[in-house]
Each structure stands twice: as C-alpha cells, then as structure tokens.
Design brief:
Elements (H helix, E strand, L loop, with lengths): L20 H5 L4 H5 L12 H14 L3 E6 L4 E5 H17 L7 E5 L4 H12 L3 E5 L5 H11 L3 E4 L17 E4 L10 E3 H7 L14 E7 L7 E6 L3 H10 L8 E4 L6 H13 L3 E5 L5 H11 L3 E4 L1 H9 L2 H5 L8 E4 L6 H10 L4 E5 L9 E2 L13 E2 L5 E4 L12 E6 L8 E2 L3 H7 L5 E10 L5 E6 L4 E3 L2 E3 L1 H8 L5 E11 L3 E10 L7 H14 L8 E4 L13 H9 L12
Parallel strand pairs: 1-11, 3-4, 3-5, 5-6, 6-7, 10-11, 10-12, 12-13, 13-14, 25-26
Antiparallel strand pairs: 1-2, 8-9, 9-19, 14-15, 15-16, 17-18, 18-20, 20-21, 22-23, 24-25
Helix pairs in contact: 3-4, 3-9, 4-5, 4-7, 8-9
The protein binds 5'-O-[(S)-butoxy(hydroxy)phosphoryl]adenosine.
Organism: Paenibacillus hemerocallicola
Enzyme class: ligase
Protein name: acetate--CoA ligase
Length: about 575
C-alpha cells in the first residue's frame, strides 16, 4: 500500500477527446442522461426497443448491428434485421402464452439466434436468464428451479443437460437447430420463426420492471439470481459513451459471453444503445482467431479480460506482428486485477493503453474506471464514474482515509444497481448492511489522488480466468462423488488464470489416494457442474480443518497452501 509504484501512463491528445474527469463529475445529474431516451416523455420503456428498434427507425436500418463469425459462419446483421428477428421471436413466445414477468432462459452458444431470442424475450416484457453454454446438468437445474423458468431456448446438443422431467414449471423447450422434430413440449425455433410476423406490439414496461436475471456465485449456498430492471439502460448507455467512448462509427468487440453480465451489459446493451456496430466471435479462444477478428472487422474499441490478455501475451509478440491491428483506438479490461505488466505490454505491442474497469454482476454496470482522458496508474482500477461515489469503509461503516485498506463500497443508489436477489431478500439486505452504502465484498484502498487499488476478496469467492466460482457449489458437487467424504475448496494464485480451483479432499473408507482418482474426481465436477468449476489441483488429506459447528475452514486451507500462519484456531473442532 505505498505509492512508490506510482508509475503513470499519461493520457495523450487522442485519449483526451472527452471532457476531463473532474469536469464530467462536477454538477453531474443522471436525469440529464434520461433525456436521451424516447421514454423520457411517456415514462414507459423497453430496453430492446431503445437498443435496436429506435435506431432502425431513425436512419440506421441498414447499418450493421452485429458482425458474427465462428468456424462455419460469417454474417452481418443490420439493425433492421435485428429488429425483425427479435420481433419474430417475441411473437413466438407470445403464441406459447409467455407473459410479462415470466422467466425465459437462453442456454446456447453465441450465435445471431441467441441475440434475437434475448432481445425478443425482453420485447414482450419477460425476464431473460442467460446461461453459459458450459454449464452441466446440476448448474442448469439449480438456476431453472430457483427462477421457476417457463421456457428455455437451447440446442439439441445441450438439451441432455436440461432436466426437463424434474422441472414442472418449465413448459416450453425451444430448440435451435436444423431438422428439429419437435416432441411434446418442444418447439422448433426455425420453423416457428419462419411463420411468425415481423410486426410486434412491444410490451411497454415501467423502468423498475424486470429485465434480466444473472446467476452468480457467493461463498455459501447455491448461486444467487441477481435481478436487474430496465432502468439499468441509463447507466449502460452512459458508460458506453464515456467509458467505452463509443461513437457512431465504432466497431466494438466485447469478448465476454452473454452467460456472464459483461456479455449482456457491455456485449448487448451498451453498444446497441449507443448505435455502434457490435462484433461477436463464436467458438473457443485462439490468439490467431482473436487477432484476425480485430483485423477483419477493423475493430476500434475492444473490451476484454486480464486472463485473455495474459494468454495473448504468452502467445508472443510475433503473433501480434502477423496482423494489422491499427484500427484499434481504445482498449479496456474487466473481471480481475489487471497486472501492470500487461498494461506495459499492451502499450508496447498494441500501442494502446489498456483501461481497467471495475464492477460486478450485482452493480449491473461499470463503476470504477480508467476514464479515457485520465492518466493510467498501472495496477489501479481507476476512479468512480461521474454520478457515483466510492469509498473504503471499516466494518462499522466509517469512511477510512487514503492508503488504508478496507471494504470497497459504493454510495447508493446508481441506475443499474440490482433490485433484488431472486427468492432471497436476506442475501440482498446483506449488501446494504452499512447504511447508505453497497458493500462489494472486495477489499481495496484509495490513494491520495483518488485512484482505487484492488487488494482481494473479503470472502472465499474464487476468481478463475475472470469467472466467479463459489467454493460451496464445487464442494457440494465433490461430496456427491462416491469416493469423497469431505471437501474444502480454495482459490490458489496462478500466473495465467489469476486463481485456480484447488480442492482438499478426505476420502471415504475403502478408497485410496491415487492420480487416477484425482482425474476421476475432476472429471466428475467437470461433467456435473461446469468445466471452469472443476478443480485443477486436488490434495488428499486424512482430515479437514472444521469449526465445531462443522463448517470447513477454508481460511486454514488457504494458509496451508500459501505456507502462511493459520491464525486464530479457537473455533476449530479439535
Ligand atoms: C468480482 C465481480 C462485472 C465484471 C465481470 C466480473 C472482481 C471485477 C475487477 C477489476 C480487480 C475485479 C472483483 C469483483 N473484479 N473487475 N477491474 N480488478 N478485480 O463480474 O463475476 O460479478 O465478479 O470480480 O472481485 O467483486 P463478477
């Protein structure tokens, strides 16, 4: 916590095309931003209309909204086309009897159909629940059960992971694929879309009506359904403008999947609310594919994650040199700490300052950012955006002075703040336990100049490759394996992935430690929960440290792993 490393990367003239940070903050008023929207006069709103239809109707009908490519497809979808395809999907849902407020889940790989389904769901006022395609049966079941979803849009390949029989409220399974033979309760997406009308009477909703449900991990219990409302568009639009710096001519690429909040707030809403052209690349990560995506589409603004930048860095400078990346003019990062080394490398090979941004599923939109016109201090997340205030608090809610580490908190409210945790009001209240503040669960400090520096999570949540994994969810899966008696899961620091998942396991009688067993246990989690939730490292122990109430002490496991003192053991079992 010292400012010796107060290395500064100055903003250049081209970065300074926005007002200065201080100027933008002074006298800032969110209600001024509202005037941008068509609903400012009527009060009734729909996110999908503001993002797509309004532009299609205002001269952008033939502008490309989406450049999509994967190994087999390469398509450009205009604003006009996106309007009609999402209208069609809205009609498909209406015909099935889906209504405003119903939950509709989308569980499929990134394709133009996914975006049409997501926007169509929103157009009829239903609440969309995007699910990452890597989820396995247990993860899908937990989320559909908790939300009581009435419909799911998926593919024949992913269908086996949807336990339809056990989900009585799930009435419709909409299958996206070729030659679908729809069985009972199933719907052929393509067939229905071909027949559906292009015209849709949009459901005009209130600003506080439900928009999207993103499930995310905590340190205890099942994943939490973070609930966002249409009002979030104010922040998505505004941060798209001032943080992503989106302008009408921009070709913007957010590399995140819509199964995570970055892939919706900044992969769908922010770019389209700003009328930009959005790039989506399907398939797996490969450095060459990523660079050719930038080159081919002439990407100007690029939003990615530290883990991806580190993988690109390890692919070598020679790989960068094979491509023409000169279209890039603004690069940003989110999800985990952005290493100063990566910032320096970005400057060298892309000739770009990588701008770190901090926010969370719960915050719905960016909050602490390196504003384009601001000098960057590598390693710092930046400063709170105009219209928001951040502080470091002690556990009693007192604001701490600069350079003291504590709870990173945001003054409530802001437009895109979550409005509830689905089915769990107590969990929701926990975030607001210090009056007037949202408590993030991150620890940080602020330097004398107001830059915020991330220090770690206060709880046990693991951040692996920018994805949040709850240790409890992994432990629960592990103990379902026939050989596992007890399991404790921690994040272990890793140079490429930020953290990897490490499991400490005690075995049931009759099972012996072996490498085969380790592999089998990891596979069990991979196939039952999700690949990114599987432990990359397993260590067998005769016994795990537990409190007298039987809670596994992850703090002790972490201390063992890092070779640190175990601290206060007064609550340990024996
Ligand atoms: C957690 C939120 C919404 C963005 C994607 C992740 C960590 C996020 C940063 C950053 C250091 C970061 C925090 C936060 N995090 N951005 N710039 N520097 N840490 O969303 O899955 O809800 O995770 O990611 O720990 O609490 P998420």
């Amino acid at each position: 916590m010292n400012n010796e490393q107060a290395e500064i990367i100055k903003a250049t003239a081209t970065d300074a095309n926005l007002r200065s940070y201080e100027e933008a903050r002074s006298g800032f008023d969110w209600t001024e931003v509202e005037k941008h929207f068509s609903w400012h006069a009527t009060g009734k709103v729909n996110m999908a209309y503001e993002a797509i239809d309004r532009h299609a109707e205002a001269g952008l009908r033939d502008k490309v909204a989406l450049y999509y490519s994967d190994a087999t497809r390469d398509e450009a979808v205009t604003y006009g086309k996106m309007k009609t395809s999402s209208n069609k999907f809205g009609n498909v849902l209406r015909r099935l009897g889906v209504k405003k407020g119903d939950r509709v889940f989308i569980f499929m790989p990134r394709t133009p159909e996914l975006y049409a389904a997501l926007l169509g769901t929103i157009k009829i006022g239903a609440i969309v629940g995007p699910l990452f395609e890597a989820f396995m049966e247990q993860a899908v079941r937990d989320r559909l059960e908790d939300s009581q979803a009435v419909a799911i849009v998926t593919t024949p390949e992913l269908l086996p992971r949807v336990p339809v029989k056990d989900l009585p409220h799930l009435k419709h399974v909409i299958l996206v694929g070729d030659n679908i033979q729809a069985g009972p309760g199933q719907v052929d997406f393509k067939g229905e879309m071909a027949q559906a009308s292009d015209e849709l009477a949009i459901e005009w909703v209130d600003r506080e009506d439900g928009l999207i449900l993103h499930y995310t991990s905590g340190s205890t219990g099942k994943p939490k359904g973070v609930f966002h409302v249409h009002n979030a568009m104010i922040q998505h639009y505004y941060t798209g403008k001032i943080v992503l710096d989106l302008k009408p001519g921009d070709v913007y690429w957010c590399t995140a999947d819509p199964g995570w909040v970055t892939g919706t707030s900044y992969g769908v809403f922010a770019p389209w609310l700003n009328g930009a052209t959005n790039v989506v690349r399907g398939g797996r990560f490969k450095p060459q594919d990523w660079y050719s995506t930038i080159e081919k589409n002439k990407v100007t603004v690029w939003y990615s994650a530290p883990t991806s930048f580190r993988m690109l860095m390890s692919a070598g400078d020679e790989t960068v040199e094979q491509f023409d990346l000169s279209s890039l003019r603004h690069v940003l990062s989110v999800g985990e700490p952005l290493n100063p080394e990566v910032v320096r490398w970005g400057l060298k090979v892309y000739n770009q300052r990588i701008h770190d941004t901090w926010w969370m599923t719960e915050t719905g939109g960016q909050l602490i950012c390196n504003y384009p016109s601001m000098d960057i201090r590598p390693g710092s997340m930046g400063k709170p955006i105009p219209g928001t205030e951040a502080a470091i608090l002690d556990d009693n809610g007192n604001v701490l002075p600069p350079n003291r580490m504590g709870n990173l908190a945001i003054k409530t409210p802001w437009p895109s703040m979550m409005r509830k945790i689905w089915n769990n009001p107590a969990k929701y209240e926990e975030y607001f336990r210090l009056t007037g503040w949202y408590v993030s669960g991150d620890s940080a400090y602020m330097d004398e100049d107001g830059y915020f520096w991330f220090q770690g999570r206060v709880d046990d949540v693991i951040n692996t490759s920018g994805e949040r994994v709850g240790p409890f969810e992994v432990e629960s899966k592990l103990v379902e394996h026939p050989a596992v008696a007890e399991a404790g899961v921690i994040g272990k620091p890793d140079p490429l992935r930020g953290e990897i998942i490490k499991a400490f396991i005690s075995l049931r009688v009759g099972f012996e430690p072996s490498d085969e067993l380790k592999a089998d246990i990891a596979k069990f989690v991979k196939e039952g929960l999700a690949a990114h939730a599987a432990p990359r490292e397993i260590e067998f122990k005769d016994k795990l440290p537990k409190t007298r109430s039987g809670k596994i002490m992850r703090r002790v496991l972490k201390a063992w792993e890092l070779g640190l003192p175990t601290g206060d053991l007064s609550t340990i079992e024996d």
